[in-house]
Design goal:
Layout: H1 3-15, E1 17-21, H2 26-38, E2 43-47, H3 53-63, E3 68-72, H4 77-86, E4 91-92, H5 98-106, E5 111-115, H6 118-127, E6 132-134, H7 143-153, E7 158-160, H8 169-175, E8 180-182, H9 189-194, H10 197-206
Parallel strand pairs: 1-2, 1-8, 2-3, 4-5, 5-6, 6-7
Length: about 210
């Protein structure tokens, strides 16, 4: 295990949850991230297909220096280079691309490749992925799938996303995941539309990983 991975995995084990934010407006993205941070989450992923994602990342790096701000939905090397230039300190992709690892590791940035099947997961890990994003977890059985992977692939830190909720996240951690990515369930659309930021903060606090 590399020093980069040791630092990254220590963060994942400490915080357990990554707030995955996809926003159609950059100011809304900043507000969502601020709400997640107020709720006690410290790992914030801004998807690269958000509106002005680079602006959101740069703003959050300045406003919340004690939080770890990264990016996700990275598809190409150009995406990754631009995201790192904007200040992203970790990156996730929904697929496996070895070139992304090379670019990220040259800049000392953790890069988590996406995979689904045991073969894909093992290949991503063998290439040097900093953990593996198991995506979409809801399509392959949720926590039962993570549990089934423990015997053959227990050495690989798994980070399930895509269907993770505040209520099933605990089960995924108990099944063996090192951390989870929380996305749409973290910010129900009706609450965001209503601007229920205080209620959203309280909801996140009530389901904080420290309670899992």
């Amino acid at each position: 295990m590399t020093p980069l991975q040791q630092r990254w995995f220590a963060q994942l084990q400490e915080h357990r949850a990554i707030a995955v934010i996809r926003a159609t407006d950059w100011q809304l993205g900043v507000k969502m991230a601020a709400t997640a941070i107020a709720g006690g989450l410290r790992l914030i992923e801004i998807t690269w297909n958000s509106n002005e994602a680079s602006r959101i990342i740069a703003t959050l790096r300045e406003k919340f220096p004690n939080s770890t701000i990264g990016t996700g939905t990275i598809l190409t090397p150009v995406d990754l280079q631009e995201a790192i230039a904007s200040g992203a300190t970790f990156a996730f992709s929904p697929h496996s691309d070895r070139d992304l690892l090379k670019i990220a590791h040259q800049r000392d940035v953790p890069m988590v490749l996406g995979a689904m099947t045991p073969s894909e997961i093992y290949q991503a890990w063998r290439w040097g992925s900093d953990g593996v994003k198991v995506f979409p977890i809801k399509a392959v059985g949720g926590s039962s799938f993570i549990q089934c992977l423990q015997s053959p692939l227990a050495q690989i830190p798994l980070i399930p996303t895509g269907g993770v909720t505040l209520t099933n996240a605990h089960d995924l951690i108990q099944a063996g995941a090192i951390a989870v990515g929380l996305s749409s369930d973290l910010f129900p659309q009706e609450m965001v539309t209503a601007g229920s930021w205080l209620e959203l903060t309280q909801r996140i606090r009530q389901h904080h990983p420290s309670q899992w």
